[in-house]
Amino acid sequence: MGQEFAPETIYVVDDDTLIQKALARLLEAEEYRVECHCDAESFLKFHKSGAPGCVILDVEMPGMNGYDVHKLLLEGNTKRQVIFLTGHGTIPLSVSAIKSGAVDFLTKPVAADQLLEAVKVALERDRMSRRDTEFRSSFQTRLERLTTRECQVLLHVMEGKMNKQIAADLGVTLKTIKVHRGRAMSKMQANSVADLVRDWTLFSAS
């Protein structure tokens, strides 16, 4: 089964086996697929970066701590949604974690509803991120199919210019512009100029 069709997995990384098992039971009762690891090294070795899901990450562990793991994930351009779990939470640490991209920063013992809500948010963010990545990849592929002239025509089209104006600007016949425009719109799978502009804007957004 390809990763794009893989089930969502919630990785639980905590050196306390009692907490690990308790979290696994809670999540599995909600019919989530759970994979547990006792340390950061095990998680990094076996976790599939391209598979959908999120990670519940203990901050304080022997060896590599949760912050180090999150930093490695970010440096590796892995858009893994992270929920931090700690026994000694402080407001500065919480703020720092959220600023670094974490979904939430929860303190042990965590309430079941609080954890489940954080997981729900993390998984939705993950789905949105994957949809965005898929769209960008698809749009880039379509762009690369355009000839130089077709690309020039589409840029003029998105500026709101009529075919006659584009023909004059590019120094070609009106018939030629119509042909290039039709082919370009077909390659970009755009039913209208509004669709094209919307997709271009989404693709260009940082």
Automatic annotation (TrEMBL):
The keyword Transcription regulation applies. The modification 4-aspartylphosphate is found at D58. Residues 9-123 form the Response regulatory domain. Keywords: DNA-binding, Phosphoprotein, Transcription, Transcription regulation. InterPro entries: CheY-like_superfamily (IPR011006), Sig_transdc_resp-reg_C-effctor (IPR016032), Sig_transdc_resp-reg_receiver (IPR001789), Tscrpt_reg_LuxR_C (IPR000792), WH-like_DNA-bd_sf (IPR036388). Residues 139-206 form the HTH luxR-type domain. SMART domains: HTH_LUXR, REC. PANTHER family: DNA-BINDING TRANSCRIPTIONAL ACTIVATOR DEVR_DOSR. This is LuxR family two component transcriptional regulator. The lineage of its organism: Bacteria, Pseudomonadati, Pseudomonadota, Alphaproteobacteria, Hyphomicrobiales.
